[in-house]
Amino acid sequence: MSWLVRYARSSIGAKHIMAVTGLLLFLFAVVHMIGHLQMFGGRDLYNTYAHFLQSLWEVKWPVRAGLLALLIVHVVVAIGLVAKNRGARPERYARYKPVMSSAAGRAMALTGLVVFVFLAFHIIHFTIGWVQPEAFHTLDPQKRYDAYSMFVYGFQNPAIYGIYLVGMILLALHLGHGAASWLQSLGLRHPKYPVDRLGPLIAIVLFVGYMAPPTAVLVGLVRMNGVG
Predict the structure, then answer these.
(1) What's the whole-model pTM score?
(2) Is the terminal CB of the chain with fewer CB neighbours within 10 Å at N or C?
């Protein structure tokens, strides 16, 4: 196992770990986004989907534990890489003028930290129910947890909407820039393929996909009694 520890502590190994964990977290983000788009199908469809997920106890908790482990590894390795990079350059440039890196790339550590805080807020809001407890775990006419109404109630509040808007902008930018980095770290980047366009495309799709349901709620297209 010593070779594995040495590999994980090396810069190349750490970048590979960042790439794999980032890719898995990205895939979950896509699946999660598709699930939330079912808000446009109405209360019964969304609550059926939410009840199905909640009833899979044998799947739900292992998945949650796995996602938490991936997130912790991703954050810890990222902190280690940032510290190692700063340690390799103890003196700051007299005048820093980036040539190849983008603003999103230079801000990856900062956006990652803010996204981590945002995800914690999201869990406290919708999973634990501390932010709006009056709408948490109410029941629909079929005696299921009314996830649809909780979602609508949450995003009718402009302050809640604003928090998610900022959080999703940063999450989309973080994952979008990360996509090109994953390909490069895993040796899948090639001049023939326009992978640099993949990052912006991913960022746009994630942002639109995640913010479409909350925006529909805020402007009144999705209501407590259904879509209309």
Answers:
(1) 0.84
(2) N
